UniProtKB/TrEMBL annotation:
GO molecular function list: FAD binding; UDP-N-acetylmuramate dehydrogenase activity
Catalysis performed (reactions): UDP-N-acetyl-alpha-D-muramate + NADP(+) = UDP-N-acetyl-3-O-(1-carboxyvinyl)-alpha-D-glucosamine + NADPH + H(+)
Main location: cytoplasm
Protein name: UDP-N-acetylenolpyruvoylglucosamine reductase
Active site: 118, 166 (proton donor), 236
Source organism per UniProt: Symmachiella macrocystis
PANTHER family in UniProt: UDP-N-ACETYLENOLPYRUVOYLGLUCOSAMINE REDUCTASE
Record lineage: Bacteria, Pseudomonadati, Planctomycetota, Planctomycetia, Planctomycetales
């Protein structure tokens, strides 16, 4: 039987007909605990990334504040190496534990865990826990940096709108959002889905939007960018 692993549902578009097979979702207090041991932080895969960021800030550990504004759970963030221009979650990982398809609990450490641009070698695991190595810092200074990053992201991204996050990966040396913008597609609407006029790499949805509305905008953006710039945009989101 086929199965899918669901984190926080971010960077994910589910078709209008739903999903065939089993959907596994890690949640509950048992998978959301956060423990601190000196500069190492261990957290369950079901914990929201936001909770982990704020917890580390409060105990004076720096590093993860660069991820502020990124939604989702720890498991999903690790699987897709969530991040931005300031850094990615993978750079802080000491170890990751998870279940294989055979039900074996394994732990990958150090060079056994590899990360790339929005990818990792963890996609074969049902992630249950991870440990991060951080650096001590001044709580007030870390908080200041975090708030500055949040204000900048809020000004340039539609963080309060319904969306699946960035739709496309940035081509090497380029910005997917800028390419879509320069193709004249900002604000373009199909049905009840719209290419954000704040950041063109986001497709926001309004009431009664369908997955088909979003898919048609994705196809339009890919087509226009390829036509004007000769660039093939690669999806960052997953489509089930």
């Amino acid at each position: 039987m086929s199965y899918h692993i669901l984190g926080g549902g971010c960077n994910l578009l589910i078709g209008d007909k739903g999903v065939s097979g089993v959907v596994i979702h890690i949640s509950g207090d048992g998978f959301s605990q956060i423990t601190v041991d000196d500069t190492q932080v261990t957290v369950g895969a079901g914990a929201p990334l936001t909770h982990l960021i704020w917890h580390t800030v409060k105990v004076g550990l720096q590093g993860l504040e660069v991820l502020v504004g990124i939604p989702g759970t720890i498991g999903g963030a690790l699987r897709g190496n969530a991040g931005g221009s300031a850094g990615d979650i993978g750079q802080f990982v000491c170890s990751v534990s998870g279940l294989t398809s055979a039900g074996e609990l394994v732990t990958r450490r150090g060079d056994e865990v590899t990360f790339g641009y929005r990818e990792s070698n963890l996609r074969d695991l049902l992630i249950v826990e991870a440990t991060f190595g951080l650096q001590p810092g001044d709580t007030d200074e870390i908080t200041r940096r975090l708030r500055k990053s949040w204000i900048m992201k809020k000004a340039t991204q539609p963080l309060t709108a319904q969306s699946a996050g960035c739709i496309f990966k940035n081509p090497r040396g380029m910005s997917a959002g800028l390419l879509i913008d320069q193709s004249g597609l900002k604000g373009t609407r199909i049905g009840n889905a719209e290419i954000s006029d704040r950041h063109a790499n986001f497709i926001i949805t309004h009431a009664d939007a369908t997955s088909d509305d979003v898919l048609r905008l994705i196809d339009l953006a890919k087509s226009k960018v390829n036509e004007q710039f000769g660039v093939d945009l690669e999806l960052e989101i997953e489509i089930w």
